[in-house]
Write a structure and sequence with these properties.
Largest sheet of chain A: 7 strands, mixed
Order of helices and strands of chain B: EEEHEHEHEHHHHHEHEHH
Number of strands of chain B: 8
Radius of gyration of chain B: 17 Å
Number of domains of chain A: 2
Structural class of chain A: alpha/beta
CATH topology of the largest domain in chain A: Aspartate Aminotransferase, domain 2
Helix content of chain A: 25-40%
Distance between the termini of chain A: 82 Å
Largest interface: A-B, 56 and 44 residues
Order of helices and strands of chain A: HHHEHEHEHEHEHEEHHHHHEHEHEEHEH
CATH class of the largest domain in chain A: Alpha Beta
CATH architecture of chain B: 3-Layer(aba) Sandwich
Largest sheet of chain B: 8 strands, mixed
Strand order of the largest sheet of chain A: 1-7-6-5-4-2-3
Number of strands of chain A: 12
Strand content of chain A: 5-15%
Distance between the termini of chain B: 23 Å
Strand order of the largest sheet of chain B: 1-2-4-3-5-6-7-8
Number of helices of chain A: 17
Helix content of chain B: 40-55%
CATH superfamily of chain B: Alpha/Beta hydrolase fold, catalytic domain
CATH topology of chain B: Rossmann fold
Radius of gyration of chain A: 23 Å
CATH superfamily of the largest domain in chain A: Type I PLP-dependent aspartate aminotransferase-like (Major domain)
Oligomer: heterodimer
Shape of chain A: globular
Strand content of chain B: 15-25%
């Protein structure tokens, strides 16, 4: 036997185990192996003193399901554990998670620096809706790292972006942009919906707040709307005087300073105590449970999503009807090397490609595929397609489309986990239909 | 609030209430490498129920300036200095882990000042694993990861924080990494390892004392906590099942309930 001393190793649970167990203790729930669905609006108080203590954040617990719910709480802890975060707050959708994040961070008169390549709904929130609350934004192309620095103003409170932009697959240089944000004393907020923590943990690359539309890959089955914000816990809200609502006494809770009292979980505590109380975009316990079912198989599904996507990239790249393919796994993708660093477990299952024949061919393709679903979602187990210029991003004018990196020939493909041959066969049907009008017009 | 102790600016959370000299004082002393934030689920209750609840950051920890104190004895004297610095003549002490060593030593040194003593995850001595000590003194983040692993019981490893949405292993990790590890955890671990006076100090304690212990505590096992408690006249012991060393987070409600009963009985609040 070797007499070599055994090295000490932490025995905390790993990703796949946390996906199944984090946030839940059966012995505190009647031994129920599955997470119970607490389908209730409200919770009994032991006595008046207990009620007062809960309302005043003196002790943990539930009051009213708009603020928190035990089933939703399991989901929040589970995602926080997978991301390596300190705390999380689930919401009714990804959009409400973004809105709640911004409203927790900013006040009227504040400014944000925002990546230009975002989901269309998010663009509209930052471009049109937030200015109504007195919050202005400067958009910067995701690859223009220096542009993020130049856009920071005195009243800038944070930088926001999608790690891999929707739908063009441009990747933000997260470590460098995080440094720019931190040098300016502001947090970096990253929408990592496309990656899930299986592909990338943004906190390891400098992000401070991570946002997900859980509706997508995390839930995975196209059944339930949900969103979440996760806090990394490293950002020091007290380093400057930019965040008085985090650091100064808050009238709404008898002079509480969130940063002093809650430190690495201060942002989430404020988002819940103030944001959920006042805006109320709560997640239903049934939807939280549905998302939990999806997360149980997250790593299994993501592997298949990514392997199918890489097969589809090869297929599309060699197809006569395809003008171009954008996916970070393609060697000539401008962010290929960055993707290898930030997405070591796979480059994701979102592909953008240009169809020869432009918009008419794109419309014909989408109208004729049978297996792939034409709809406004991504990250389903099933393969999904859409023509962004006439769908998800149709509310943008021509200039905004161009700035967002969108073209009329672009098809957005969310690769599902069906048999890869069936997806390819279906695309052949679409491509044949797409070629037809051109053949007719050439005659 | 920030105030000066021995000319060094230090921080203590007041549980969200302004400090009021008329109210009795409870001082909460955190464990190795940690900060006042570990007490958030206990201090706010006392602050809103007739007490000054001061969850201190030891020098060099959390939001306090200065260098970390190098011995448990120095920390014990420092806690006494805190009582003086805030203008009180007496206090009730609550400690967790290393904070138990500090408060036991402080109570034995200043018996007239300390009115009650509450120990969570306490022992008369906390000898350190040499490899863990070395990692902490060499600023290796693995020291924090190991501490968080050992400090949480099997149930605590799954989460289930009493405050919805908080994941306490990661929160604890972030607290322990908030300052330079070798200057906080490294110094604290060495101070714990060097301290040999716990059992003798315990024999001198005459004030009401409570020990809250946990069945799955690997860092200060129940038998060590009981051994310490047995040396203190009339000491009460409360044991929590399915819980690890981080009981003040893992079973925050249970801890608060026991603590509330003990302190309000033996050191009543200022009536409103």
């Amino acid at each position: 036997m070797s007499d070599k001393k055994k090295e000490l190793k932490p025995n905390t649970y790993k990703f796949d185990t946390l996906s199944l167990h984090a946030g839940y203790q059966p012995h505190k729930n009647a031994g129920s192996r599955q997470v119970p669905i607490y389908q209730t609006t409200s919770y009994l108080f032991d006595d008046v003193d207990h009620a007062a203590a809960l309302f005043n954040l003196e002790r943990g617990g539930h009051i009213y399901s708009r603020i928190s719910n035990p089933t939703v709480g399991v989901l929040e802890e589970r995602v926080a554990s997978l991301e390596g975060g300190t705390a999380a707050l689930a919401t009714s959708s990804g959009m409400s998670a973004i809105f709640l994040t911004v409203m927790t961070l900013c006040e009227a008169g504040d400014h944000l620096v925002v990546s230009s390549q975002l989901y269309g709904g998010t663009v509209n929130l930052f471009r049109l809706t937030l200015p109504k609350f007195g919050i202005k934004c400067t958009f910067v192309k995701p690859r223009d790292t220096e542009g993020f620095k130049k856009a920071i103003q005195k009243n800038t409170k944070g930088i926001f972006g999608e790690l891999v932009g929707n739908p063009g697959n441009e990747i933000m240089n997260m470590p460098e942009i995080a440094k720019i944000a931190h040098d300016a004393g502001i947090p970096l907020m990253v929408d990592a919906t496309y990656q899930t923590p299986y592909l990338c943990k943004p906190f390891e690359h400098g992000a401070d707040i991570v946002i997900h539309s859980l509706t997508k890959w995390m839930a995975g089955h196209g059944s339930s709307m949900a969103g979440i914000l996760v806090e990394g816990g490293k950002f020091d809200w007290m380093q400057n005087d930019k965040f008085p609502t985090m650091t100064k006494p808050y009238e709404g809770y008898h002079g509480l300073s969130f940063a002093e009292e809650f430190g690495p979980t201060a942002f989430t505590m404020k988002a819940r105590a103030e944001g959920m109380r006042d805006f109320g975009p709560c997640l239903s316990p049934q939807n939280a449970w549905n998302v939990l079912q999806g997360i149980e198989t997250l790593s299994v599904r993501m592997k298949k999503h990514c392997s199918n996507a890489e097969e589809m990239v090869k297929y599309l790249s060699n197809h006569e009807s395809v003008a171009w393919v954008s996916h970070p796994s393609v060697p000539d993708h401008p962010d290929h090397e960055l993707a290898k660093k930030l997405l070591p477990n796979g480059r994701g299952s979102m592909i953008a490609f240009g169809i020869k024949g432009g918009k008419d061919a794109g419309v014909a393709f989408i109208n004729n595929v049978k297996l792939a679903s034409h709809l406004a979602n991504v990250g389903d187990t099933r393969t999904l397609v859409i023509h962004p210029a006439s769908g998800t991003h149709s509310q943008m004018d021509e200039a905004t489309l161009k700035f967002a990196g969108l073209s009329h020939d672009m098809i957005r493909l969310s690769v599902g986990i069906e048999d890869i041959d069936d997806i390819k066969n279906d695309f052949e049907i679409g491509f044949r239909a797409a070629r037809k009008p051109r053949l007719v017009s050439n005659q | 609030m920030k105030f000066k102790v021995n000319n060094n600016e230090v921080f203590a959370s007041t549980g969200g209430r302004p400090f009021d000299k008329k109210k009795p004082l409870i001082i909460f002393v955190h464990g190795s490498g940690l900060t006042h934030m570990t007490w958030v689920l206990q201090t706010r209750y006392f602050a809103f129920h007739g007490y000054n609840a001061l969850a201190v950051d030891l020098p060099g920890h959390g939001l306090s300036n200065g260098e970390s104190l190098k011995s448990i004895e120095e920390m014990a004297d420092w806690v006494n200095d805190v009582i003086d610095a805030v203008g009180h003549k007496e206090a009730s002490l609550v400690g967790h882990s290393q904070g138990c060593l500090v408060t036991v030593e402080c109570t034995s040194r200043y018996p007239d000042k300390i009115k009650t003593l509450s120990l969570m995850g306490g022992a008369g001595a906390i000898p350190m694993n040499p490899e863990l000590l070395s990692l902490a003194e060499n600023n290796d983040p693995k020291a924090v990861d190991l501490m968080m692993d050992w400090a949480h019981g099997p149930a605590g490893h799954f989460g289930g924080h009493p405050v919805p949405g908080l994941y306490h292993i990661n929160t604890g990790t972030m607290l322990a990494k908030s300052r330079t590890i070798q200057n906080t955890l490294g110094v604290d671990f060495r101070a714990c390892d060097n301290y040999k006076n716990g059992f003798e100090a315990a024999k001198k304690i005459k004030c009401p004392t409570l020990s809250i212990l946990a069945t799955d505590d690997k860092m200060c096992p129940v038998k060590e906590g009981k051994k310490l408690a047995s040396l203190i006249d009339g000491s009460q012991v409360d044991i929590i099942d399915n819980c690890g060393h981080m009981m003040l987070l893992e079973e925050a409600d249970r801890v608060l309930t026991v603590l509330k009963k003990f302190i309000t009985t033996n050191y009543p609040p200022l009536s409103s």
